Request: fold
Amino acid sequence: GENVEQHPSTLSVQEGDSAVIKCTYSDSASNYFPWYKQELGKRPQLIIDIRSNVGEKKDQRIAVTLNKTAKHFSLHITETQPEDSAVYFCAASIDYKLSFGAGTTVTVRA
Amino acid sequence: ETGVTQTPRHLVMGMTNKKSLKCEQHLGHNAMYWYKQSAKKPLELMFVYSLEERVENNSVPSRFSPECPNSSHLFLHLHTLQPEDSALYLCASSQDYRESTDTQYFGPGTRLTVL
Reply:
């Protein structure tokens, strides 16, 4: 099955700086890559996604890049704010199965 | 948010108890999912239902028994659980499980503690 590795497991950034989270996947057939944000005690919520026919997607301060050849994708958060503090999960999809990374705990220091 | 709801939000049970988790989606979706979320581990897919029919049982022990009476409701029946089953159980739904690019929407989860 698909194996998704996510790094780093924890990330502490100064408010206003950028945060980058990287994921790799094993199955080249994966064609959909969502990113979820989970605040403490709350549900995972989709923040951005990218499909395999696109290399980059941006939504305000959040961007995702995909390198199909290398089988890795990354989440970039610019101008971080305290409300960006949360656990972020990457995932890769084959058919109907989403395989998740283990998560990155992001802490934004004021 | 009322898209996907789960009850109860917290549950403490002994190993000999029988309990059920409930999930309801108000999004008109056809697919529903159960995931297990343990600390520092990836979300683990447990079951997938499409229009009340189970399409995936991801090697889950029989002490977990899902039920999908209609496309809006999903249950997870629990019996003779082990302490290592303590986790956050998340329900999700999507429009069509066959469409790999459909977004899955999650419920708030049930925090289960097995004593």
